[in-house]
Amino acid sequence: MTKSKIVSVDEAVAEIPDGAKVALGGWIFNSQPMALVRALIRKGSRDLHLIPAPGSIAPDMLIGAGCVASTVCVFISFEQFGLAPHFRRQSENGTLKVYDLDGPAIAGGLRAGICDLPYMPVPDLGTDLPKFAPEHYWPLPSKPGERRMLAVAAVKPDVCLLHAQQADEHGNVQHLGPPFFDAMIAQASRRVIVSVDRIVSTDTIRRSNHLTKLPSAMVDAVVEAPFGAHPTASPSLYRSDEAHLKDYVKSSASAETFSAYLDRYVRSASSSAYLDTIGGSRLAALAVSETNLK
Amino acid sequence: MTANPSLGETLAVLLARDIADGEKVIIGTNSDIQLAACNLARRLQAPRLWWISGPGGMVNPTRDHLLSTADYENLESAESWMDLPVMIDFIDWKIHFFDFAILSALQVDRFGNINTVVVGDQRKPRVRGPGTVGISALCGLAKRFYVCLTRHDRSAFVPRVDFLCGAGHMEGGDSRERMGLPPGGPRLVLSPLGVFDFVPDSKAMRVRSISPGVTLEQIRDSTAFDIVVEGMPPVTTMPTDQELALLREHVDRRGDLRRKFP
Q1: Domain of residue B161, CATH code
Q2: Does A95 fall in a domain?
Q3: Residue A213 covered by a domain
Q4: Is A181 an 8 Å CB contact of chain B?
Q5: pTM (predicted TM-score)
Q6: For residue B69, what is the nearest residue in chain A, using CA coordinates?
Q7: Distance to chain A for B166, nearest Cα, Å
Q8: Burial class (CB in 10 A: 0-12, 13-18, 19+), B3
Q9: Domain at A47, CATH number
Q10: What pLDDT is stored for residue B70 in this prediction?
Q11: Which of A250-256's residues contact partners 24+ apart within 8 Å by CB, and which partners?
Q12: Residue B1 — very low, low, confident or very high, per pLDDT cuts 50/70/90?
């Protein structure tokens, strides 16, 4: 019998050293690994190098809390609520190093990482991306008349933080909605930490094994974190909390108001205290139901 | 008598008119106008339009109102969604699979290159945008693309984009082909002031039609490069009562376009 991989959220991030290359899963306002992100901030992480899948509040909050030295940017946005506030401010101040990558470079880079290759070839699309991230893109030789090609560097995170809907104690992780880039990120990462909204039995996993996107051998630690993606959505379980996302953007207007936000929701709060702060009726209203279908 | 169309409604209708039945389309995130254009075209001349929101991999999401394309609720209303790693290969590398993409941008330049990354220097930008995602591949490899901007000023219409993340006609002329990209590039640029296309040989942006009440001087003053004007461009044909009624009753029942883009 495999030893249980279930650990507390603080134990899960305890071994992530300052300066680590940390990948973040999910996709914009879906499945951002927020319980794990809040734990990293509580721990006082510094100088992280982020590799976020197209994201929103997970990379932005880590940047705002001073945990980040550099980030890859494929896409970091607050969509209808505007630009990502801390990502934007620290980029514009020149205090955050940003490696702009396009979809081909992140997908190709992760594939190279998965396949133990130094790079993947991709067609040259004529952009300025190579000029500003020569560490990630360089020209490959081509004969006259052939398509111009670039190498995109392998992307190999030290650790990835993901959020899914359910897992068993052995670390079989199931996505009850789109898995986005999570499986690819997990394969390319040295360590894989996953928070899930609930723990289920291995029998439950077996009954719908087509939902298991990360088999146990790929997963190092599982954290039970109900509403662990809040304020983003956990597909099929709860919707994104738009009021909270708006409040976050508003709180990010000044250092004082953002510090107050972090004190209230992150620094003083364990995961259960966080849910108490958000409030039961608020969380209940987010649970997926036909009556709150937008 | 229908109320006057808002800017967002007008842009959605103008885009919808340019879509042919059976075409395959890709749009990005935060794309209310683009989503409305696709679903309106499906109600009008293009019932077999097949459209996909790239990042979520969702196909033909249909509601009677607009939802953020980044929302799970939109995924719930789609005919299918694809695993992203598979989807990425599909959208990134199939040359001319997509008839067109509809994009917005921080900046567009004289040759229709676009920028969603930064205004100013990438290392210390004046405005830090959301990034490139699939725009490089869509602009490079779709048969054509549209650029839809809700503002028209000298900071958005620039001689050369500060960061080229989606290739238009590059340096003009045949430079796009010389770069090794397949034929294509921007077809139309739409803004509050008018509709713009590109001169066939030089590939320089030109005025195709002007919004009602707008003057050529206004367009010239709001554009930071020499925009081509041939003769007296016509006034843009505004949305008809029928187009607006369909849009408001079946595509945007909650009036998001009116609220967000008045």
Answers
A1: 3.40.1080.10
A2: yes
A3: yes
A4: yes
A5: 0.95
A6: A79
A7: 6
A8: exposed
A9: 3.40.1080.10
A10: 66
A11: A252/A60, A252/A64, A252/A85, A252/A86, A253/A85
A12: very low
CA–CA min distance A268, chain B (Å): 30
The total number of structural domains that make up chain B: 1
Domain encompassing residue B187: 7-260
Number of folded domains that form chain A: 1
User: Would B26 be classed as within a structural domain?
Assistant: yes
Q: What gap in Å lies between CA B19 and CA B45, rounded to an integer?
A: 8
Strand order in the sheet with A149-153: A119-123, A149-153, A137-140
Q: How confident is the model at residue B54 (pLDDT cuts 50, 70, 90)?
A: low
A109 falls within a domain: no
Residue B241: its pLDDT value, please? 95
Q: Which chain B residues contact residue A30 at CB under 8 A?
A: 70, 72
Give the nearest partner residue to A127 out of B129, B165, B180, using CB atoms: B165
The whole domain housing A195 covers: 9-100+156-286
How many residue pairs bridge chain A and chain B with CB atoms within 8 Å of each other?
162
Nearest Cα to B91, choosing from B154, B142, B126, B17?
B142
First to last CA, chain A: 44
Find the closest chain B residue to A89 by CA distance: B128
Is residue B208 exposed (0-12), middle (13-18) or buried (19+ Cβ within 10 Å)? middle
Q: Provide, as residue numbers in chain A, all residues whose Cβ is less than 8 Å from the Cβ of B163.
A: 100, 128, 132
Using CB atoms, which residue from B55, B85, B126 is nearest to A107? Answer: B85
A275: left (phi over 0), alpha (psi -120 to 50) or beta: alpha
Which residues touch B163 (CB under 8 Å, ≥6 apart)?
A100, A128, A132, B115, B117, B118, B122
pLDDT, residue B60, reads 79
Q: Which residue's entry shows tokens 């680590």?
A: A20
User: Would residue B217 count as lying in a domain?
Assistant: yes
Tell me what percent of the residues of chain A surpass a pLDDT of 90: 91
Residue A113's pLDDT band (boundaries 50, 70, 90)? Answer: very high
Residues 236-255 of A with CB under 8 A from B: 239-240
Whether B132 and A239 lie within 8 Å, measured CB to CB: no
Domain presence at residue A82:
yes
Cis (ω within 30 of 0) for the bond into A85? no
Q: Residue B71 and residue A235: Cβ atoms within 8 Å?
A: no
Report the gap between the CA of B217 and the closest CA in chain A (Å): 32
How far apart CA B19 and CA B25 sit, in angstroms, is: 9
